[in-house]
Each structure stands twice: as C-alpha cells, then as structure tokens.
Amino acid sequence: MRWKPIALVVLLTAVVVATAIKNFLNQLGDKGPVSTPCTSSAESKRWRTYVCLAKFEPGVFNYRTHEIVIREAWVERTSKELYFLVWFPYRKNIGGYQLCFTLRSGNEVFTSSSFEPPFFVIGKRGNGFATVNLDELFYDTLDELPPTVRVSLLSDWKEERLTNIVVRIDKTH
C-alpha cells in the first residue's frame, strides 16, 4: 500500500523536471525575432498565419538550360513561435507579411556548384529572397499587401533588374 504515494511523488517529480527542461529548450529556440515561414500554404493554414494566394506570372522561368517551375505561392503573416503552458506550440502574428513560394522543378539550379546560383529579388531591394534548405522554400518580407509585386531572377547583383516577373496577390482567397 505504501508504493502508491511513492509512485505519485516520483511521477510528479518527473513531470516537473521534464517541464523545466522543456522550458529551457523552448527558450534556447526563442533567440530570433521571427520564425521561419511555413513550408506550404496548407501548413500556413494549420498555424493560422495564412493570408492569401499569390500567383507568379510567368510561372515558368528558364535559367541557362534549366526550367524553373513554381509549385505554389502564398502570403502569410510574419509570426513568432511561442509555447502555451510550455508544451503546446503556437504562432503569434507580429505584424507584416511574408511572400513565400516553393518550386515544382528547377531546384537543382539553386544548389549547383558548377556555376553561381541565381536568386530572386523584389524590385530594387538590396537583398534576395531567403531560402530554407537552399531550395525548399523561398520567402521575403512585405510591410503591406500590394496587388502586385515585381520580381527579378538575377545571377549577379550588377545585373539590370528586369522586374519581369509579376506576382499577383489574390486577397480574395
């Protein structure tokens, strides 16, 4: 009969220790101001950061001998991953937006070691789209939601910005 109270104390102690460790690990991951965007529009919807669809025109680009095809594009709210009661992750919207897209084909162009890989740039900005795993997800920030965004595919910062890719932001979806 005495083992039940001892087992309860051991269990509660284990939960308290595990919660303290989890809290410490959560704080280690909370160093940056913004979380990486979701890797798909479906994931963005699950995290409740999804805003709307975006459409690249054209949706197919040629770079050297490679064809680059957009899989999907969307806009999500900029967010930060936090935890409710230490154990339950959620994303808090912190203002601003992120234009995100993935590729159906052409990923090898961005990971090639045989030539300098190209990069996407919004307008005349001094930085290109950030990537996750070099080619899994491309994203850049937007302060507001304009109806269109002009993008260039560059292989060198000295190139002329053609801004020949139009991204239409569909606020109705």
Describe the fold and architecture.
With 173 residues, this protein is an alpha+beta fold. It is 22% helix and 43% strand. It has helices at 3-28, 41-47, 107-111; strands spanning 50-57, 60-63, 66-84, 88-105, 119-122, 130-132, 137-142, 148-154, 165-170. Strands 1, 2, 3, 4, 5, 6, 7, 8 and 9 form a nine-stranded antiparallel beta sheet that branches.
**Which oligomeric state applies?**
single chain
Radius of gyration, in angstroms, nearest whole number? 22 Å
- By DSSP (H or I, 4+ residues per run), the number of helices equals 3
Terminal residue distance: 62 Å
Q: Look at the structure and give the mean pLDDT.
A: 86
What is the element layout, followed by pairings?
Blueprint: H1 3-28, H2 41-47, E1 50-57, E2 60-63, E3 66-84, E4 88-105, H3 107-111, E5 119-122, E6 130-132, E7 137-142, E8 148-154, E9 165-170
Antiparallel strand pairs: 1-3, 1-9, 2-3, 3-4, 4-7, 5-8, 6-7, 8-9
Features of this protein?
single chain; 173 residues; alpha+beta; 9-stranded antiparallel β-sheet; 3 helices
Can you describe this structure in just a few lines?
The chain is built from 3 helices and 9 strands.
